[in-house]
Design goal:
This protein is α+β, with helices and mostly antiparallel strands. The chain contains 17 helices and 15 strands. The chain is flat.
């Protein structure tokens, strides 16, 4: 639906009336994206069912009996005929009036508070810390920012992201007040238009992945070692939980009925990934924050979208080619035919998390981050037809890589021949591959995290105010 609404926006900018067509259940998401693009007036026609799993006869019947009459009615203002009943949009679903920023919304014992918050849809399904005013106010001991400062406006519900509601959701997630500057930087990332938070409700079900790099990692006792991406350490876990809670409560990304999160299946990992500076310094490698263009003395937060995680990537031995081959093969398995995404959309930013022991082995053999990126770009390949076919499965539209090359929209390497079995790179540009060192120092295991679109990582410096303890 995001792509459909963007196409409708382009048509409208050309002064041609547009009608958007989406499948059942997608009207709320389409409406939200339409508002973000300034085309809330564009009609949305619903195809009843799932296009990609309907046979040709059913597809044609639904088009003629349901979709076409609605399109004609939308463009002419005439009656829609026997159009299927439309699901209610988010705007049609009654909502309780929202409280003011410092209103006391409920008073009672803990169990009753949990029940009330759950009934209002203000939790992620787990118990929360009651966000009392005094708890939220403690967060402001660690910043100079005013509680009513507006950081941005978050679609699809278009609520203001303020320093105060960041603190409130931080309390609910179980964060300590000293984490507050990190939470503020995270919300700055969420509010950045380049993050495209409005797409977080798409069927792919992508998750926001938070990477933290800098001195605050050790100062606030983040876990960078064994079980780095498991729940268990308060800093890693509560801040990770905060991100999804904030996207739910402020942006409005909630699962149906009546809401805009249309993840077909989805998955969740609410844990921050912090970089192990000690090992990075030992190796003489640049830390992730420097790779992102920031000074080494700063602490930065980066957020990117992830739709898939690789299997554990175990490597061993003294022969560097064995490590590289295995990393490349399992990284490639995690990417699969999703590699088409980076070619088509002109951006794609997979992330590799190297265990300290593997990073040390690579460094000992003269392989640094740049050499590893170049190896992956050069050697991890897939048959062209797989990428083209999977695009058809996902988008219901054909893809021809050679045509993209002829139009100047893809590198010539993707059309060196007409053989559908020709091997093409799965990484579009080596510099787009992120590398972070973290994990169990006593195991040779790495992991890869893969997105599916051109959402680039968005980064912000963590600023701590003079009033902090």
């Amino acid at each position: 639906m995001p792509a459909v609404m963007r196409a409708a926006a382009a048509i409208e900018r050309a002064n041609i009336p547009a009608v958007a067509i989406g499948a059942t259940g997608f009207e709320p998401l389409g409406r939200a994206i339409g508002r973000s693009l300034g085309i809330s007036h564009v009609p949305i026609v619903i195809y009843p069912g799932v296009i990609s799993t309907d046979d040709t006869g059913t597809f044609r019947r639904k088009l003629s009996e349901t979709v076409v009459p609605q399109v004609v009615a939308a463009l002419t203002g005439g009656p829609p005929g026997e159009a299927a009943e439309q699901p209610k949009s988010a705007a049609q679903i009654p909502r309780q009036a929202e409280p003011e920023p410092q209103d006391v919304v409920y008073s009672g014992v803990l169990d009753d508070i949990q029940s009330y918050f759950t009934a209002q849809g203000w939790t992620d399904g787990l118990p929360v810390i009651p966000p009392t005013i005094d708890r939220a106010e403690r967060f402001f001991e660690f910043t100079d920012r005013s509680p009513d400062e507006v950081i941005g406006v978050l679609p699809p519900d278009y609520r203001e992201a303020t320093a105060w509601n960041v603190a409130v959701n931080g309390v609910m997630a179980g964060c300590l007040p000293e984490y507050f500057p990190i939470l503020l930087a995270i919300v700055e990332c969420l509010a950045d238009p380049d993050f495209r938070i409005e797409d977080a409700g798409s069927t792919f079900g992508w998750e926001p992945m938070v990477v933290l790099s800098g001195p605050l990692v050790s100062e606030l006792e983040f876990n960078t070692g064994t079980g780095v991406m498991r729940v268990g350490r308060q800093a890693n876990t509560s801040i990770g939980r905060f991100v999804r809670l904030y996207m739910r409560n402020v942006a409005g990304l909630r699962i149906p009925p009546g809401h805009t999160d249309q993840a077909a299946i989805g998955y969740t990992f609410n844990v921050v990934l912090p970089e192990d500076d000690r090992v990075v310094d030992e190796l003489g490698w640049s830390p992730y924050r420097v790779d992102r263009g920031f000074p080494g003395g700063e602490t930065i937060v980066s957020i990117q979208q992830v739709v898939n995680i690789s299997a554990p990537i175990y490597t061993s031995g003294d022969r560097i080619e064995h490590h590289l081959e295995t990393i490349g093969r399992l990284f490639g398995n995690a990417i699969g035919p999703w590699a088409y995404s980076g070619i088509v959309h002109g951006g794609w930013y997979p992330l590799l998390v190297l265990s300290p022991s593997v990073a040390r082995t690579l460094a000992r053999c003269g392989v640094g981050k740049d050499e590893l990126r170049d190896y992956l770009y050069t050697n991890v390949r897939a048959p062209a037809y797989q990428l083209e076919r999977y695009h058809q499965h996902v988008r219901n539209t054909p893809l021809d890589l050679a045509t993209l090359v002829r139009r100047g929209e893809a590198d010539p390497v993707y059309a060196r021949s007409d053989d559908p079995e020709r091997l093409v790179p799965m990484f579009v540009h080596p510099e787009w591959i992120g590398i972070v060192v973290a994990g169990n120092p006593n195991r040779a295991q790495s992991r890869a995290y893969v997105g599916n679109h051109k959402h680039a990582p968005v980064s912000r410096v963590v600023h701590r105010g003079s009033r902090r303890r």
